[in-house]
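Fold it.
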Amino acid sequence: MNPYQQKKRWKYFLLAFAVVIAFGSLFYTRYLVKNIAISERTRAQVWALSMKQVLNSDDNDFLNYVFAVRDSLTVPAIVTDAKGDIVIQRGLDTTKTNIKLEAEGKKTKKYDPEYFKSELDYMKKQHAPIKLLVLGEQWFVYYKDSALLQQLRLFPYIQLTVIAIFLLMAYTAFSSSRKSEQDQVWVGLAKETAHQLGTPISSLMAWIELMKEKFNAEGDTLIAEMENDVQRLEIVADRFSKIGSKPVLEEHAVYAVVKDFVDYFKVRVSKNISFEMTGNPHLKAGLNIPLFDWVLENLLKNAVNAIEGKGGIHIEIGGNKLKNQVFIDVTDTGKGIQRSKFDTVFQPGYTTRKRGWGLGLSLTKRMIENYHNGQIFVKDSEIGKGTTFRIILKNIRHDKQAIS
Protein backbone atom coordinates (compact mmCIF):
# COMPACT_ATOMS: atom_id res chain seq x y z
CA MET A 1 0.00 0.00 0.00
CA ASN A 2 1.47 3.39 -0.97
CA PRO A 3 1.67 6.22 1.60
CA TYR A 4 -1.16 8.21 -0.01
CA GLN A 5 -3.60 5.28 0.17
CA GLN A 6 -2.56 4.59 3.76
CA LYS A 7 -3.11 8.25 4.68
CA LYS A 8 -6.48 8.15 2.95
CA ARG A 9 -7.52 5.09 4.98
CA TRP A 10 -6.54 6.81 8.21
CA LYS A 11 -8.69 9.81 7.24
CA TYR A 12 -11.66 7.53 6.61
CA PHE A 13 -11.07 5.77 9.93
CA LEU A 14 -10.94 9.07 11.84
CA LEU A 15 -14.04 10.30 10.01
CA ALA A 16 -15.90 7.10 10.91
CA PHE A 17 -14.77 7.43 14.54
CA ALA A 18 -16.01 11.03 14.64
CA VAL A 19 -19.38 9.93 13.19
CA VAL A 20 -19.67 7.24 15.90
CA ILE A 21 -18.98 9.85 18.59
CA ALA A 22 -21.53 12.23 17.07
CA PHE A 23 -24.27 9.60 16.87
CA GLY A 24 -23.42 8.36 20.36
CA SER A 25 -23.79 11.89 21.71
CA LEU A 26 -27.07 12.40 19.86
CA PHE A 27 -28.42 9.02 21.04
CA TYR A 28 -27.57 9.70 24.69
CA THR A 29 -29.04 13.21 24.54
CA ARG A 30 -32.22 11.87 22.97
CA TYR A 31 -32.37 9.32 25.79
CA LEU A 32 -32.14 12.13 28.36
CA VAL A 33 -34.69 14.24 26.48
CA LYS A 34 -37.12 11.32 26.36
CA ASN A 35 -36.84 10.72 30.12
CA ILE A 36 -37.22 14.42 30.94
CA ALA A 37 -40.21 14.65 28.57
CA ILE A 38 -41.89 11.76 30.41
CA SER A 39 -41.12 13.48 33.70
CA GLU A 40 -42.60 16.76 32.48
CA ARG A 41 -45.77 15.06 31.26
CA THR A 42 -46.13 13.49 34.69
CA ARG A 43 -45.71 16.91 36.27
CA ALA A 44 -48.31 18.34 33.87
CA GLN A 45 -50.70 15.56 34.84
CA VAL A 46 -50.10 16.26 38.54
CA TRP A 47 -50.76 19.94 37.94
CA ALA A 48 -53.95 19.16 36.02
CA LEU A 49 -55.23 16.78 38.71
CA SER A 50 -54.39 19.25 41.47
CA MET A 51 -56.32 21.94 39.63
CA LYS A 52 -59.26 19.55 39.27
CA GLN A 53 -59.14 18.85 42.98
CA VAL A 54 -59.06 22.57 43.76
CA LEU A 55 -62.14 23.19 41.66
CA ASN A 56 -64.09 20.17 42.92
CA SER A 57 -63.16 20.19 46.65
CA ASP A 58 -64.34 22.20 49.69
CA ASP A 59 -61.62 20.95 52.09
CA ASN A 60 -59.47 24.06 52.76
CA ASP A 61 -56.63 22.16 54.47
CA PHE A 62 -56.35 19.77 51.58
CA LEU A 63 -56.60 22.65 49.15
CA ASN A 64 -53.56 24.33 50.70
CA TYR A 65 -51.55 21.16 50.07
CA VAL A 66 -52.80 20.92 46.53
CA PHE A 67 -51.93 24.57 45.88
CA ALA A 68 -48.40 23.96 47.16
CA VAL A 69 -47.94 20.98 44.84
CA ARG A 70 -49.41 22.82 41.89
CA ASP A 71 -47.31 25.95 42.37
CA SER A 72 -44.10 23.90 42.46
CA LEU A 73 -44.67 22.81 38.88
CA THR A 74 -43.21 25.08 36.18
CA VAL A 75 -44.39 23.38 33.00
CA PRO A 76 -46.02 26.02 30.74
CA ALA A 77 -49.67 25.04 30.22
CA ILE A 78 -53.04 26.25 28.92
CA VAL A 79 -56.40 24.83 29.95
CA THR A 80 -59.39 25.08 27.59
CA ASP A 81 -63.01 24.11 28.02
CA ALA A 82 -65.02 21.92 25.66
CA LYS A 83 -65.59 24.89 23.34
CA GLY A 84 -61.84 25.57 23.06
CA ASP A 85 -61.95 28.77 25.09
CA ILE A 86 -58.97 29.41 27.36
CA VAL A 87 -59.88 28.95 31.01
CA ILE A 88 -56.54 28.92 32.81
CA GLN A 89 -52.89 29.46 31.82
CA ARG A 90 -49.62 28.84 33.63
CA GLY A 91 -45.92 29.54 33.05
CA LEU A 92 -46.36 31.84 30.04
CA ASP A 93 -45.05 35.33 29.33
CA THR A 94 -46.69 37.56 31.94
CA THR A 95 -46.30 40.63 29.74
CA LYS A 96 -48.53 38.97 27.15
CA THR A 97 -51.03 37.19 29.34
CA ASN A 98 -52.63 40.21 30.99
CA ILE A 99 -53.40 43.52 29.31
CA LYS A 100 -54.98 46.27 31.40
CA LEU A 101 -57.69 48.26 29.66
CA GLU A 102 -59.97 51.05 30.72
CA ALA A 103 -63.60 49.94 30.40
CA GLU A 104 -66.37 52.01 31.84
CA GLY A 105 -63.97 53.56 34.35
CA LYS A 106 -62.86 50.20 35.74
CA LYS A 107 -59.62 48.34 35.27
CA THR A 108 -60.11 44.97 33.64
CA LYS A 109 -57.73 42.21 32.48
CA LYS A 110 -57.74 40.59 29.09
CA TYR A 111 -55.55 37.95 27.47
CA ASP A 112 -53.58 38.76 24.32
CA PRO A 113 -55.50 36.64 21.77
CA GLU A 114 -52.73 36.39 19.15
CA TYR A 115 -50.11 35.32 21.67
CA PHE A 116 -52.36 32.69 23.21
CA LYS A 117 -53.47 31.36 19.85
CA SER A 118 -49.87 30.83 18.73
CA GLU A 119 -48.90 29.25 22.07
CA LEU A 120 -51.93 26.95 22.03
CA ASP A 121 -51.22 25.84 18.43
CA TYR A 122 -47.63 25.11 19.37
CA MET A 123 -48.68 23.08 22.43
CA LYS A 124 -51.15 21.05 20.37
CA LYS A 125 -48.38 20.12 17.96
CA GLN A 126 -45.99 19.10 20.77
CA HIS A 127 -48.12 16.88 23.00
CA ALA A 128 -51.52 15.21 23.22
CA PRO A 129 -53.81 16.98 25.71
CA ILE A 130 -54.58 15.76 29.22
CA LYS A 131 -58.36 15.35 29.59
CA LEU A 132 -60.15 16.40 32.80
CA LEU A 133 -63.76 16.20 33.96
CA VAL A 134 -64.37 19.38 35.93
CA LEU A 135 -67.80 20.15 37.35
CA GLY A 136 -69.36 17.82 34.81
CA GLU A 137 -67.60 19.48 31.86
CA GLN A 138 -64.75 18.13 29.70
CA TRP A 139 -61.61 20.29 29.94
CA PHE A 140 -58.30 19.90 28.08
CA VAL A 141 -54.85 20.65 29.47
CA TYR A 142 -52.23 21.52 26.83
CA TYR A 143 -48.58 22.00 27.75
CA LYS A 144 -45.21 22.49 26.12
CA ASP A 145 -41.66 21.53 26.97
CA SER A 146 -39.93 23.63 29.57
CA ALA A 147 -37.13 26.00 28.59
CA LEU A 148 -34.59 23.55 30.07
CA LEU A 149 -35.84 20.69 27.90
CA GLN A 150 -35.85 22.86 24.77
CA GLN A 151 -32.27 23.92 25.45
CA LEU A 152 -31.29 20.30 26.03
CA ARG A 153 -32.71 19.35 22.63
CA LEU A 154 -30.51 21.96 20.95
CA PHE A 155 -27.44 21.32 23.08
CA PRO A 156 -25.96 18.32 21.14
CA TYR A 157 -26.20 20.17 17.81
CA ILE A 158 -24.52 23.25 19.27
CA GLN A 159 -21.92 21.05 20.94
CA LEU A 160 -21.16 19.12 17.75
CA THR A 161 -20.96 22.33 15.71
CA VAL A 162 -18.47 23.88 18.13
CA ILE A 163 -16.40 20.66 18.21
CA ALA A 164 -16.44 20.44 14.40
CA ILE A 165 -15.28 24.05 14.04
CA PHE A 166 -12.54 23.50 16.60
CA LEU A 167 -11.36 20.27 14.94
CA LEU A 168 -11.39 21.94 11.51
CA MET A 169 -9.30 24.86 12.80
CA ALA A 170 -6.92 22.49 14.62
CA TYR A 171 -6.56 20.25 11.57
CA THR A 172 -5.93 23.23 9.29
CA ALA A 173 -3.32 24.70 11.64
CA PHE A 174 -1.62 21.33 12.14
CA SER A 175 -1.58 20.52 8.42
CA SER A 176 -0.24 23.97 7.57
CA SER A 177 2.49 23.68 10.20
CA ARG A 178 3.45 20.16 9.12
CA LYS A 179 3.48 21.15 5.44
CA SER A 180 5.69 24.14 6.22
CA GLU A 181 8.15 21.92 8.11
CA GLN A 182 8.20 19.37 5.28
CA ASP A 183 8.77 22.10 2.71
CA GLN A 184 11.71 23.45 4.69
CA VAL A 185 13.26 19.97 4.93
CA TRP A 186 12.81 19.29 1.21
CA VAL A 187 14.14 22.72 0.24
CA GLY A 188 17.22 22.22 2.40
CA LEU A 189 17.79 18.72 1.00
CA ALA A 190 17.36 19.95 -2.59
CA LYS A 191 19.84 22.82 -2.17
CA GLU A 192 22.36 20.55 -0.47
CA THR A 193 22.00 18.03 -3.34
CA ALA A 194 22.66 20.78 -5.88
CA HIS A 195 25.72 21.86 -3.90
CA GLN A 196 27.07 18.29 -3.71
CA LEU A 197 26.57 17.73 -7.46
CA GLY A 198 28.57 20.81 -8.35
CA THR A 199 32.05 19.33 -7.78
CA PRO A 200 31.69 16.03 -9.73
CA ILE A 201 29.96 17.82 -12.61
CA SER A 202 32.84 20.27 -12.92
CA SER A 203 35.27 17.35 -12.85
CA LEU A 204 33.38 15.48 -15.57
CA MET A 205 33.43 18.55 -17.79
CA ALA A 206 37.20 18.81 -17.33
CA TRP A 207 37.71 15.11 -18.11
CA ILE A 208 35.70 15.43 -21.32
CA GLU A 209 37.88 18.33 -22.47
CA LEU A 210 41.01 16.27 -21.73
CA MET A 211 39.62 13.35 -23.74
CA LYS A 212 38.98 15.62 -26.70
CA GLU A 213 42.56 16.92 -26.64
CA LYS A 214 44.27 13.58 -25.97
CA PHE A 215 42.43 11.55 -28.58
CA ASN A 216 41.77 14.39 -31.02
CA ALA A 217 38.04 13.57 -30.77
CA GLU A 218 36.50 16.99 -31.13
CA GLY A 219 33.76 15.72 -33.47
CA ASP A 220 33.24 12.29 -31.91
CA THR A 221 29.50 11.58 -31.50
CA LEU A 222 29.93 9.51 -28.33
CA ILE A 223 31.85 12.27 -26.58
CA ALA A 224 29.27 14.76 -27.81
CA GLU A 225 26.49 12.72 -26.18
CA MET A 226 28.53 12.46 -22.98
CA GLU A 227 28.86 16.23 -23.05
CA ASN A 228 25.09 16.55 -23.50
CA ASP A 229 24.53 14.34 -20.46
CA VAL A 230 26.92 16.37 -18.33
CA GLN A 231 25.12 19.54 -19.41
CA ARG A 232 21.88 17.83 -18.44
CA LEU A 233 23.36 17.12 -15.00
CA GLU A 234 24.15 20.82 -14.73
CA ILE A 235 20.52 21.60 -15.51
CA VAL A 236 19.35 19.08 -12.90
CA ALA A 237 21.61 20.66 -10.28
CA ASP A 238 20.29 24.08 -11.27
CA ARG A 239 16.72 22.81 -10.83
CA PHE A 240 17.41 21.67 -7.29
CA SER A 241 19.13 24.92 -6.42
CA LYS A 242 16.04 26.87 -7.53
CA ILE A 243 13.62 24.94 -5.28
CA GLY A 244 12.24 27.17 -2.55
CA SER A 245 12.79 30.41 -4.45
CA LYS A 246 10.57 32.17 -6.96
CA PRO A 247 11.89 31.37 -10.45
CA VAL A 248 12.25 34.04 -13.11
CA LEU A 249 9.95 33.53 -16.11
CA GLU A 250 11.13 34.65 -19.53
CA GLU A 251 9.34 34.80 -22.88
CA HIS A 252 10.02 31.70 -24.99
CA ALA A 253 8.48 30.02 -28.02
CA VAL A 254 6.76 27.00 -26.45
CA TYR A 255 7.08 24.76 -29.52
CA ALA A 256 10.86 25.30 -29.76
CA VAL A 257 11.41 24.64 -26.03
CA VAL A 258 9.38 21.42 -26.13
CA LYS A 259 11.09 20.24 -29.34
CA ASP A 260 14.59 20.78 -27.89
CA PHE A 261 13.78 18.57 -24.92
CA VAL A 262 12.01 15.90 -27.01
CA ASP A 263 15.06 15.69 -29.30
CA TYR A 264 17.26 15.11 -26.27
CA PHE A 265 14.87 12.67 -24.60
CA LYS A 266 13.85 10.40 -27.48
CA VAL A 267 17.38 9.08 -28.17
CA ARG A 268 17.55 7.86 -24.56
CA VAL A 269 14.47 5.62 -24.63
CA SER A 270 13.51 2.49 -26.54
CA LYS A 271 13.34 2.72 -30.33
CA ASN A 272 9.96 0.98 -30.10
CA ILE A 273 8.49 4.28 -28.94
CA SER A 274 7.94 6.95 -31.59
CA PHE A 275 7.60 10.70 -30.97
CA GLU A 276 5.53 13.18 -32.97
CA MET A 277 5.07 16.93 -32.54
CA THR A 278 2.47 19.18 -34.15
CA GLY A 279 1.08 22.63 -33.49
CA ASN A 280 1.63 26.35 -33.77
CA PRO A 281 5.35 27.31 -33.58
CA HIS A 282 4.60 31.01 -32.90
CA LEU A 283 2.97 30.68 -29.48
CA LYS A 284 4.96 32.18 -26.63
CA ALA A 285 4.64 31.94 -22.87
CA GLY A 286 6.55 32.84 -19.73
CA LEU A 287 8.81 29.87 -18.94
CA ASN A 288 11.67 28.95 -16.69
CA ILE A 289 13.37 26.46 -19.01
CA PRO A 290 15.20 24.29 -16.39
CA LEU A 291 11.97 23.80 -14.43
CA PHE A 292 9.79 23.42 -17.52
CA ASP A 293 12.17 20.78 -18.91
CA TRP A 294 11.67 18.96 -15.61
CA VAL A 295 7.90 19.06 -16.20
CA LEU A 296 8.34 17.62 -19.70
CA GLU A 297 10.74 14.98 -18.41
CA ASN A 298 8.26 13.78 -15.80
CA LEU A 299 5.37 13.68 -18.28
CA LEU A 300 7.36 11.88 -20.98
CA LYS A 301 8.81 9.35 -18.51
CA ASN A 302 5.31 8.71 -17.25
CA ALA A 303 4.13 8.19 -20.83
CA VAL A 304 7.03 5.83 -21.61
CA ASN A 305 6.33 3.76 -18.50
CA ALA A 306 2.64 3.54 -19.44
CA ILE A 307 3.48 2.07 -22.87
CA GLU A 308 4.03 -1.67 -22.75
CA GLY A 309 6.10 -2.70 -25.75
CA LYS A 310 5.61 -0.65 -28.89
CA GLY A 311 3.74 2.63 -28.96
CA GLY A 312 3.85 6.33 -29.59
CA ILE A 313 3.79 9.72 -27.88
CA HIS A 314 2.17 12.69 -29.59
CA ILE A 315 2.69 16.27 -28.41
CA GLU A 316 0.49 19.06 -29.73
CA ILE A 317 0.91 22.79 -29.11
CA GLY A 318 -2.24 24.87 -29.47
CA GLY A 319 -3.95 27.90 -28.04
CA ASN A 320 -7.14 29.79 -27.32
CA LYS A 321 -7.10 33.37 -28.57
CA LEU A 322 -10.13 34.46 -26.55
CA LYS A 323 -8.76 33.14 -23.25
CA ASN A 324 -5.16 34.12 -24.07
CA GLN A 325 -3.90 30.59 -23.31
CA VAL A 326 -1.39 28.09 -24.69
CA PHE A 327 -2.19 24.37 -24.57
CA ILE A 328 0.31 21.52 -24.49
CA ASP A 329 -1.28 18.09 -24.93
CA VAL A 330 0.89 15.02 -24.27
CA THR A 331 -0.84 11.86 -25.54
CA ASP A 332 0.48 8.32 -25.16
CA THR A 333 -0.78 4.92 -26.34
CA GLY A 334 -0.27 3.33 -22.95
CA LYS A 335 -2.47 1.37 -20.57
CA GLY A 336 -4.66 4.34 -19.57
CA ILE A 337 -5.95 5.66 -16.25
CA GLN A 338 -9.27 5.00 -14.54
CA ARG A 339 -11.51 8.08 -14.46
CA SER A 340 -11.71 7.85 -10.66
CA LYS A 341 -7.91 8.28 -10.52
CA PHE A 342 -7.70 11.45 -12.64
CA ASP A 343 -7.02 13.61 -9.56
CA THR A 344 -5.31 10.89 -7.49
CA VAL A 345 -2.37 10.54 -9.91
CA PHE A 346 -1.14 14.00 -8.83
CA GLN A 347 -1.09 13.09 -5.11
CA PRO A 348 2.35 12.58 -3.50
CA GLY A 349 3.15 8.90 -3.07
CA TYR A 350 0.69 7.61 -5.67
CA THR A 351 2.29 5.15 -8.09
CA THR A 352 1.32 1.98 -9.97
CA ARG A 353 4.93 0.84 -10.33
CA LYS A 354 6.71 -1.56 -7.98
CA ARG A 355 9.64 0.85 -7.87
CA GLY A 356 9.20 4.57 -7.52
CA TRP A 357 8.36 7.27 -5.03
CA GLY A 358 5.23 8.54 -6.76
CA LEU A 359 6.48 12.15 -6.72
CA GLY A 360 6.92 12.89 -10.45
CA LEU A 361 3.42 14.07 -11.31
CA SER A 362 3.05 15.74 -7.91
CA LEU A 363 6.17 17.84 -8.58
CA THR A 364 4.95 18.49 -12.11
CA LYS A 365 1.66 19.89 -10.85
CA ARG A 366 3.45 22.07 -8.32
CA MET A 367 5.89 23.47 -10.88
CA ILE A 368 3.11 24.30 -13.36
CA GLU A 369 0.65 25.79 -10.88
CA ASN A 370 2.97 27.49 -8.36
CA TYR A 371 5.87 28.53 -10.58
CA HIS A 372 4.30 29.03 -14.03
CA ASN A 373 0.80 30.16 -12.93
CA GLY A 374 -0.73 27.49 -15.15
CA GLN A 375 -2.80 24.33 -14.94
CA ILE A 376 -2.22 20.62 -15.54
CA PHE A 377 -4.80 17.85 -15.54
CA VAL A 378 -5.77 14.58 -17.19
CA LYS A 379 -7.73 15.70 -20.23
CA ASP A 380 -8.81 12.24 -21.33
CA SER A 381 -7.94 8.60 -20.79
CA GLU A 382 -9.24 5.19 -21.81
CA ILE A 383 -8.10 1.89 -20.37
CA GLY A 384 -5.98 0.01 -22.89
CA LYS A 385 -5.84 2.90 -25.37
CA GLY A 386 -3.92 5.74 -23.75
CA THR A 387 -3.95 9.00 -21.84
CA THR A 388 -3.77 12.72 -22.63
CA PHE A 389 -2.33 15.20 -20.14
CA ARG A 390 -2.99 18.88 -20.79
CA ILE A 391 -0.85 21.82 -19.64
CA ILE A 392 -2.35 25.31 -19.85
CA LEU A 393 -0.02 28.33 -19.82
CA LYS A 394 -0.70 32.03 -20.18
CA ASN A 395 0.08 33.34 -23.64
CA ILE A 396 2.17 36.51 -23.32
CA ARG A 397 2.33 37.31 -27.03
CA HIS A 398 -1.17 38.13 -28.14
CA ASP A 399 -1.18 38.97 -31.83
CA LYS A 400 -2.68 37.65 -35.04
CA GLN A 401 0.30 35.40 -35.76
CA ALA A 402 0.50 33.91 -32.31
CA ILE A 403 -2.86 32.15 -32.17
CA SER A 404 -4.68 31.15 -35.29
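The first strand starts at residue 77 and ends at 80.
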